[in-house]
Amino acid sequence: MTTDPAIFLVADNCFAIKRWIQPLEWMMVARELGLSFVQASTDNEFDALYGDPSYLEDWVTNVRRATEETGVQVRSVYTGYQTYRTVGMAHPDVRVRRRIIDGWLKPTIDACAELQAELGFHLFAYPEEAMQDARRYEQTTEWILDGLGEAATYAHSAGVRISIEQMYSPHQPPWTIHQARECLAAIYERAQAPCYLTIDTGHQVGQARYRRPTREQVNRAVADSDLSDAWWGSEATHRMVEGGERGVPSGSDEITAALERDRRFFADEQDSDLYEWIRQLGRYSPIMHLQQTDGTGSHHAPFTVRTNPTGIVHPMKVLTALRESFSQGTEAGMPVPPDSVYLSFEIFSGTADTRREVLRRMRESIEYWRESIPRDGLSLSELVVDD
Predict the structure, then answer these.
(1) What is the set of domains in the chain, with CATH numbers?
(2) Cα separations (Å) of 131 from 136, 177, 262, 263?
(3) What pLDDT is attached to residue 1?
């Protein structure tokens, strides 16, 4: 059981998309930025669904050669937007689900095995019809968990560690701390192999919009059909509050019972707190995505003199919360905490940004974090020292 992991800084090469597309190119840029490790976005010309199989094999070979030339290593591969923008493993048609598992996950796991890298992804979302029907929601959940269990088993046999990314709205699981813990435990039970979690420092911005209405809000809604200041979850509950075809709102008890049944739509206060995510689940997050945010949006902003004054992501607070999490050990039925954590800059740039702007923001972000992590491989106990 690991309680004191080694910490590394990594750059997701999403910063290089449509600019530096060959492995040697973005590895040389990473080296110039002062980094020894890269997280390879599949959007940067390495997606198994649109890439030719022979090209993908050559890509792996080119990564190895570029590592020999630059000393930079690909420590992980991660999904970009190509697959993220579909429901993927939650699709009602089994052919789509199998295509994601057999055509994307397994070939990408194979590539990661050759590179001795880990894999992170988010490949599923509930379509609206599943969100609105509890039985369809349960069935879709089983499809997702079955697929993730299969992926975990396959990855474990290949010696590849896999992680799924936490999100911030009801239709993209896991989006609450409770759901994330349940998801990891359910996969572990199915596969008897681990699947980990990727915590993103900007993915706590949506949960506050999806809090369960208070009793006061329920009573006010019943009194005057006021829907403006609350999220009611399902469309059926919205209609109950509005009065439906009868034009008369349902009673408070009826609405409260509906809210209790539809827990999948609601987050708790803790789910909006980045540091609570890290304290509770950081020890199951071998990859963490770094972006600066003021807490109102997941903009994948850099860590600069312009963004940091209003930003809520502070290196030492992240490391301190991470140390607190690892000190708790392993929960029964959960994966064994990893012996390393890779903090990966997932910083987006605009198409109109110049290459100098892109590199300046990356360099400034890295320098900011190097104040707290002066070199890679130091342990949490070395980085976070009690006064």
Answers:
(1) 6-211+271-383 (3.20.20.150), 215-260 (no CATH)
(2) 8, 19, 10, 11
(3) 58
